[in-house]
């Protein structure tokens, strides 16, 4: 499902429910594989956050559990900054993988997770 204009992404009741589902089922950052401390202040770089595997600007569903993973806030922000402005045809999501620059020789830099395991 792609995002429709005016459809909320990371706000509202549906987002909070989707976010809580991730917090309830995952304990480790999908980007680095390290545990996420739930006691940290929400703005701490190692605090918990929810990352979209396929970015919203590439048509990723903002609420689909299969598109969401637990991540450290700082790593999630850094990933988003790296992907900002990346055209979909230059992104791995155009081949069914999580968003990342489409460079065959570049290591992925995060832990592989099978969406069916969630």
Describe the structure.
With 118 residues, the chain is α+β, with helices and mostly antiparallel strands. Helix content is 21%, strand content 8%. The chain has one domain (12-104). It is built from two helices and two strands; from the N terminus they run H-E-E-H. Strands 1-2 form a two-stranded antiparallel ribbon. The mean pLDDT is 85.
Provide a short characterization of the protein structure.
With 118 residues, the chain is of the alpha+beta class.
The biggest sheet amounts to: 2 strands, antiparallel
Number of domains: 1
What is the terminal separation in angstroms? 19 Å
Number of helices: 2
Order of helices and strands: HEEH
Q: Which percent range fits the helix content?
A: 10-25%
What oligomeric assembly is this protein in? single chain
Broad structural category: alpha+beta
Count the strands?
Answer: 2
Core attributes:
alpha+beta; globular; 2 strands; 118 residues
Task: Write the topology of this structure.
Blueprint lengths: L11 H14 L22 E5 L15 E5 H11 L35
Antiparallel strand pairs: 1-2
């Amino acid at each position: 499902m792609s995002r429709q204009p005016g459809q909320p992404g990371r706000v509202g009741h549906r987002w909070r429910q989707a976010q809580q589902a991730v917090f309830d089922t995952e304990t480790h950052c999908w980007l680095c594989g390290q545990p996420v401390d739930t006691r940290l202040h929400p703005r701490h770089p190692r605090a918990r956050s929810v990352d979209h595997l396929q970015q919203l600007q590439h048509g990723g569903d903002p609420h689909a559990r299969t598109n969401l993973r637990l991540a450290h806030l700082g790593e999630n922000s850094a990933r988003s900054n790296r992907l900002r402005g990346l055209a979909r045809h230059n992104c791995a999501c155009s081949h069914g993988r999580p968003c990342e620059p489409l460079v065959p020789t570049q290591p992925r830099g995060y832990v592989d997770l099978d969406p069916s395991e969630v």
